[in-house]
Amino acid sequence: MEEKTFSFLGNDTIVSQQFFDSFRSTHLEPEKSLLLAILEDAVHCIEKYGAAKDRAGKERFREAESWIMKPGNEWIFSFDNVCELLGLDPQYVRQGLQKRRVKTVDLSIPRQRRHGSRKQAA
Fold first, then answer.
1. Per the domain annotation, does 63 fall within a domain?
2. What is the model's pLDDT at position 22?
3. Residues 6 or more apart from 94 whose CB is under 8 A from it?
4. CA 66 to chain centre
5. Is 21 contained in some domain?
6. How many angstroms separate the CA atoms of 34 and 40, rounded?
7. Whole-prediction pTM value?
8. Which of the 8 DSSP states describes residue 101?
9. Full DSSP string of 36-83
10. How far apart, in whole angstroms, are the C-alpha atoms of residue 45 and residue 69?
């Protein structure tokens, strides 16, 4: 179950949609549906705006990242509380999102720069 539950941390954006769809396939209490929507929006912002160049996109990414990375459960809608109420380990989800972010950023860097190779002069 854990492997399927955290499958949204994989490399494919479609996989994260499948994760959220699996929650919707079962009847959720209205409160859990709200929590799932909050988490889904944050993950969507991380995926969509991670490489944004415009000010609005960068701000959406920054807000989502800030919410996800801020530890603590003092606020009812904190990332930690949302995850825990959905039966997810917040630290595990954070780590997976960070690893995914590193892979995404690494893939967006041209291959020559990634590996430090330089073109030789002809």
1. yes
2. 53
3. 68, 69, 79
4. 12
5. no
6. 10
7. 0.63
8. H
9. HHHHHHHHHHHHHHTT--SHHHHHHHHHHHHHHH----SSTTSHHHHH
10. 14
